[in-house]
Automatic annotation (TrEMBL):
<feature type="compositionally biased region" description="Basic and acidic residues">
    <location>
        <begin position="180"/>
        <end position="210"/>
    </location>
</feature>
<keyword id="KW-0472">Membrane</keyword>
<feature type="transmembrane region" description="Helical">
    <location>
        <begin position="16"/>
        <end position="36"/>
    </location>
</feature>
<feature type="region of interest" description="Disordered">
    <location>
        <begin position="173"/>
        <end position="210"/>
    </location>
</feature>
<keyword id="KW-0812">Transmembrane</keyword>
<protein>
    <recommendedName>
        <fullName>VanZ-like domain-containing protein</fullName>
    </recommendedName>
</protein>
<feature type="domain" description="VanZ-like">
    <location>
        <begin position="24"/>
        <end position="143"/>
    </location>
</feature>
<feature type="transmembrane region" description="Helical">
    <location>
        <begin position="127"/>
        <end position="147"/>
    </location>
</feature>
<keyword id="KW-1133">Transmembrane helix</keyword>
<feature type="transmembrane region" description="Helical">
    <location>
        <begin position="71"/>
        <end position="89"/>
    </location>
</feature>
<dbReference type="InterPro" id="IPR006976">
    <property type="entry name" value="VanZ-like"/>
</dbReference>
<dbReference type="Pfam" id="PF04892">
    <property type="entry name" value="VanZ"/>
</dbReference>
<feature type="transmembrane region" description="Helical">
    <location>
        <begin position="96"/>
        <end position="115"/>
    </location>
</feature>
């Protein structure tokens, strides 16, 4: 079978390499932001105040304070992480993300509680991070399912068009060119005759055109 079809085409690894690279880069960014020893260096307080002022101008009630903003930010921060993880994992191994997302968030909170005195860990942060990671994972799996369905339709249409062309060629074969039979020259006509004679003197004679 392989001799007829030729060598098997290699698999495309572009999605895997790109998604893995983005996953590692973003996971490092999340670790840098959440595990920085002194949070005041990152100026989260000033950024949060400016964001809240903008939200209040757009009609967000003032009951939405810093704690609610931090909870929402924790969800949003892990959405890209779950998305890149969903793209990097194989199609049959997507369920690993169900454990990797909360495991990574738990590692961050555990490190904050045990090694960083200026950080405050909370089980609520693990819940927010896990929720965001699962949302990103859902986006990734939905996009992969849509691309997979599109590719199947493209391949099925290509196979259908190929089979239709084969059937059309069988039903309406191309007209064969007519082969015109030429009258053999005198020498050929004489030498190709089946000799019914034995004596050379009885052989038929014909004047050759040369």
């Amino acid at each position: 079978m392989t001799d007829v079809l030729g060598p098997k085409p290699p698999r495309s690894r572009a999605r895997l390499w790109v998604a893995t690279l983005l996953l590692l880069v973003y996971a490092g960014f999340v670790a840098l932001v959440t595990l920085w020893p002194n949070p005041s260096d990152l100026e989260f307080g000033g950024i949060a105040d400016r964001v809240l002022n903008v939200l209040y101008r757009f009609g967000v009630p003032e009951s939405f304070g810093f704690d609610e903003l931090e909870f929402t930010a924790n969800i949003g921060m892990f959405v890209p992480l779950g998305f890149f993880l969903g793209l990097a994992l194989p199609r049959r191994g997507w369920w690993l993300a169900l454990f990797l997302v909360p495991g990574y968030s738990g590692f961050i909170e555990f490190t904050q509680a045990t090694a960083l005195e200026s950080r405050v860990s909370s089980i609520l942060d693990v819940f927010a991070n896990t929720t965001g990671g699962y949302i990103g994972l859902l986006f990734a799996m939905t996009m992969r399912a849509m691309i997979y369905a599109r590719d199947r339709r493209i391949i099925a249409r290509a196979i259908w068009e190929r089979d239709a062309e084969i059937i059309r060629a069988r039903q309406h074969p191309l007209p064969q060119q007519r082969v015109t039979q030429r009258e053999p020259d005198p020498a050929t006509r004489i030498f190709e005759q089946r000799p019914a004679w034995r004596d050379p003197q009885d052989a038929p004679t014909e004047r050759l055109p040369f």
